């Protein structure tokens, strides 16, 4: 069964600290993995997109990694800011079949001053 | 601002009714995706259109249908509404290239409440 599991479910850290969010998937055949940031009541915003051959991609203070062998991805946030408080969603797509777009349930991140 | 416009922002209706949600994609984007986000099931892919043609189907119910018009705007039609259809419905658009590796840009959604 195609699944995407994220951990932790929620996380609270102090402003300025780093954190890492995890995503494990079983979607096959793999096409790409995306990380989105979703503020409450808003649409998701794309952070990174990685294909099979990419193992690291950065977008400012966000760095995503992908291990296609173990089917694991992580999103590392450096020097967190209050505006980083949001849900972070991992999404995996299957190759040649857009109907297989599987969403993780997200990690709710709260940054405390 | 993602450049994707969804209307209306909020919609309240009763069970058994039919509603139409509208999406205007970013200028130049040919692909439109529809998603449903509910509290108990999270985000789910419903359907994709590319340049007016249906490209892929996800977990879309038979009571739901969509279309993409020549001007590339899209509509999602929901009929025989049930309480469980209450959710946020998002539209996203992506660039002109074919394939799933394009970044998707999401609108801010239509919040549908069924009473």
The termini of chain B sit apart by 31 Å
How many helices of chain B? The count is 0
Order of helices and strands of chain B: EEEEEEEEEEE
Portion of residues within helices of chain A: under 10%
**Hey, roughly how much beta strand do the residues of chain B contain?**
over 45%
Oligomeric state of the chains in view: heterodimer
Mean pLDDT of chain B: 92
Average of pLDDT of chain A: 93
Overall spatial form of chain A = globular
> Span from first to last CA of chain A?
41 Å
- How much of the sequence lies in strands of chain A comes to over 45%
How many beta-strand runs of chain B? 11
Count of runs of 4 or more consecutive helical residues of chain A: 0
Low-confidence stretches of chain A: none
Description:
The complex is a heterodimer of chains A (113) and B (115). Chain A is an all-beta fold. In chain A, 0% of the residues lie in helices and 62% in strands. Chain A has no helices and eleven strands. Chain A is globular, with a radius of gyration of 14 Å. Chain B contains no helices and eleven strands. In chain B, strand 4 (31-38) and strand 5 form a beta hairpin. Chain B starts with a strand and ends with a strand. Chains A and B meet through strand 4, strand 5, strand 9 and strand 10 of A and strand 5, strand 6 and strand 10 of B.
List the helices and strands and how they pair.
The complex is a heterodimer of chains A (113) and B (115).
Chain A: E1 4-7, E2 10-14, E3 19-25, E4 30-38, E5 45-51, E6 56-59, E7 62-67, E8 72-77, E9 86-94, E10 97-103, E11 107-112
Chain B: E1 5-7, E2 10-13, E3 19-24, E4 31-38, E5 42-50, E6 53-57, E7 64-68, E8 74-78, E9 87-94, E10 104-106, E11 110-114
Parallel strand pairs in B: 2-11
Antiparallel strand pairs in B: 1-3, 3-8, 4-5, 4-9, 5-6, 7-8, 9-10, 9-11
């Amino acid at each position: 069964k195609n699944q995407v599991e994220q951990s932790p479910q929620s996380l609270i850290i102090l402003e300025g600290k780093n954190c890492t969010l995890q995503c494990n998937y079983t979607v096959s055949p793999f096409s790409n993995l995306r990380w989105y940031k979703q503020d409450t009541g808003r649409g998701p915003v794309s952070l990174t997109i990685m294909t099979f051959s990419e193992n690291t991609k950065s977008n400012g203070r966000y760095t995503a990694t992908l291990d296609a062998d173990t089917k694991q991805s992580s999103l590392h946030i450096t020097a967190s800011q209050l505006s980083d408080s949001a849900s972070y969603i991992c999404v995996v797509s299957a190759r040649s079949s857009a109907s297989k777009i599987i969403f993780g349930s997200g990690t709710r991140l709260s940054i405390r001053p | 601002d993602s450049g994707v416009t969804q209307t209306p922002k909020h919609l309240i209706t009763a069970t058994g009714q039919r509603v139409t949600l509208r999406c205007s994609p970013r200028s130049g984007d040919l692909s439109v995706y529809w998603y449903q986000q509910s509290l108990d099931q999270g985000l789910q892919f419903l359907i994709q259109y590319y340049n007016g043609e249906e490209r892929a189907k996800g977990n879309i119910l038979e009571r739901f249908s969509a279309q993409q018009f020549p001007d590339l705007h899209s509509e999602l039609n929901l009929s025989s509404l049930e309480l469980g259809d209450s959710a946020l419905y998002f539209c996203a658009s992506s660039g002109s290239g074919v394939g799933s590796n394009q970044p998707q840009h999401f609108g801010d959604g239509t919040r549908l409440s069924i009473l």
